[in-house]
Design goal:
With 304 residues, the protein is of the alpha/beta class. It folds into two domains: 155 residues, NAD(P)-binding Rossmann-like Domain (Rossmann fold, 3-Layer(aba) Sandwich), CATH 3.40.50.720; 130 residues, Dihydrodipicolinate Reductase, domain 2, CATH 3.30.360. The protein contains ten helices and twelve strands. 51% of the residues are buried.
Length: 304
Amino acid sequence: MKRFEKIKVAIIGSGNIGTDLLMKVHRSPYLECSYFIGRNEMSEGMKKAKSLGVRTSANSIDTIINDPDCCDIVFDATSAIDHIKHAPILEELGKFVIDMTPSNIGEMCIPAVNLEECLKTTNINMVTCGGQASIPLAYAIRQTQEDVEYIEVVSSIASKSAGPATRKNIDEYISATEVGIQRFSDVYRTKTILNLNPADPCIDMQVTVFALVKTPNLESLVEAVNEIVRKIQYYVPGYELIIPPTIENERIVIMVRVRGLGDYLPAYAGNLDIINCAAVAAAEEYAKKKYDIQEGAGFAAYYN
């Protein structure tokens, strides 16, 4: 493999998403976390970063303002309202930004669908965990079906996997997911539902896509869905098709389950993995392009 220095990244946000992201970056052959940034030095995320020998700061975005050379890539794992404030600052500092919040500011990035296009911009948005799981399926519907009238997405995640920032952003989550489905499916009658399931033991993340299509073509849809699932499994190993395209009550139904790697929260927290693995895959491709690296499987190689 071509010799290179790892790309330095900073993570803003020390909650569940940020801490799980830290663990994945720490394992990457292309990325190095140079700063883990939050607001509380005593948070569990900060303690985890320190245990890994990662530099920490409780000064939020000011950390990067005061030390702009600390990183090339910034993962913003705070909240939608915070990213609205952070985005222009990071743009002025010339950072490649991967937005983990449902702010709907940057270019929506679904690595299995439009990664190359996204790497030409400076701010990419990972939509939501439900969006990462469902939008590729909506895209497959668009590619194979005519006269699609309506798409509905129902996501269920374990309540314990939803931290304060996720709960604070429920309205933004629904809006961003619906916008993503509309964009990648060209269907404008859409609905998004999120269930935070308190069951004990915790459930795995499950996402169901329903579509109303006048004359369904299941054969072509099955082929397209199988292909998109294979692409997602390259960077999200726990993504699994559990109900292939099926006709039920005159609707197309597709269901997937996502099991996590258990990096920070247990494996039931597939909602962390689906968005964080996608974000790391995007960051790694950015690093590989920067150094013109053709060899190596990147993130997925660590789990296959």
